[in-house]
């Protein structure tokens, strides 16, 4: 059942689900304290609710403590220093493999490369070095980036390879950074390998815009949260609510493919994310990316 606001409601078995859309729906979904993502996942992953029963497990196994537990574990080790070199080794191997093949499938090769790097960084190098063992390991449920990162990278490569204007602009940007940091006859490859994280994050605005545009087009999940409070959650000033115990859902395409926000929304156009256009600022949380509001994935 849909309403004039664009929000809608239905039942999934015995569970009430309220679909949200538009600026007020987005803001409610991503910013309400009472809409819980972990509880929402239990609608389709019943086993996930077991993790919420903190009395069954040690307290540090509860999802609310996961971030601090992982961070503490990492900081207690010396392995962080080896991660860049580990990732570089597998990236180099992938590039060599691609160069040897000439024609390649970016989705297959980049997914494989990222999976290897992720497993090696986590300290399970024996899996990373074996293609057979690696392909038997299912990481998607625990590490969403295992799927998102190669997908976004692949679409960025495809976008650039089919758009001469942006390919030329990005090549120019990369060449300028290489020239800026080149010393003692270093090759372009050597310069890029030596760049700091700060340089990568702040001196490639065009490449960054390309990645954001690929995320807009490729990362389009339908996410669920649950009203864990004992009262209605108001959907802005629409007069509509999400009842206690009901689920709320949001389809990222509501914003990402909205022509009022992004003209010609199906077209890959990184210029949308440059300061002179900034189309994502037209509405609240118009770019959801990997999430927004109170809980989102790190950039």
Polypeptide structure, described:
This is Cytochrome P450. It comes from Aspergillus tubingensis. Heme binds at residue 297. One of its GO terms (molecular function) is iron ion binding. By secondary structure, the chain is α+β, with helices and mostly antiparallel strands. Among the domains are: 8-75 and 221-265 and 285-296, no CATH class; 79-157, no CATH class. It has 13 helices and nine strands. The strands form three sheets. Strands 1-2-7-4-3 form a five-stranded mixed β-sheet. A two-stranded antiparallel sheet has the order 5-6. A two-stranded antiparallel sheet has the order 8-9. Helix 5 (106-121) runs antiparallel to helix 8 and helix 8 packs across helix 12. The two termini are 36 Å apart. Mean pLDDT is 80; it is low at 47-64 and 138-142.
Helix/strand/pairing category? alpha+beta
Distance between the termini: 36 Å
The share of residues in helices is: 40-55%
Instruction: State Rg.
Output: 22 Å
Query: Order of strands across the biggest sheet?
Result: 1-2-7-4-3
Taken as a percent bin, the fraction of beta residues is 5-15%
Q: What kind of sheet is the major sheet?
A: 5 strands, mixed
The gross shape turns out to be elongated
């Amino acid at each position: 059942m849909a309403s004039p606001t664009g929000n809608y409601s239905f039942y999934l078995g015995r569970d009430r689900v309220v679909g949200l859309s538009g600026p007020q729906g987005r803001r409610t979904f991503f910013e309400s304290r009472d809409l819980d993502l972990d509880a929402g996942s239990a609608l389709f992953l019943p086993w996930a609710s077991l993790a919420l029963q903190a009395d069954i497990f040690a307290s540090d196994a509860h999802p609310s403590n996961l971030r601090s537990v992982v961070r503490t574990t990492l900081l207690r080790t010396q392995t962080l220093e080896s991660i860049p070199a580990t990732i570089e080794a597998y990236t180099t191997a992938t590039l060599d493999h691609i160069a040897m093949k000439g024609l390649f499938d970016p989705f297959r090769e980049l997914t494989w490369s990222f999976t290897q790097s992720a497993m090696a960084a986590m300290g399970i190098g024996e899996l990373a070095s074996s293609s057979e063992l690696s392909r038997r390991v299912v990481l998607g449920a625990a590490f969403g980036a295992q799927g998102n990162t190669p997908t976004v990278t692949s679409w960025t490569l495809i976008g650039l390879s089919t758009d001469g204007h942006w390919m030329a602009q990005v090549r120019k940007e990369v060449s300028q950074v290489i020239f800026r940091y080149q010393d003692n006859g270093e090759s372009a490859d050597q310069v890029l390998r030596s760049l700091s994280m700060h340089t990568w994050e702040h001196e490639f605005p065009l490449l960054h815009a390309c990645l954001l545009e690929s995320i807009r087009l490729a990362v389009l999940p339908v996410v669920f949260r649950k009203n864990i409070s004992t009262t209605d959650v108001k959907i802005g000033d629409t007069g509509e609510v999400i009842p206690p115990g009901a689920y709320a859902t949001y389809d990222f395409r509501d914003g990402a493919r909205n022509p009022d926000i992004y003209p010609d929304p199906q077209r890959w156009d990184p210029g949308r994310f440059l300061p002179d256009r900034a189309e994502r600022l037209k509405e609240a949380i118009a770019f959801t990316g990997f999430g927004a509001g109170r809980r989102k994935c790190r950039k």
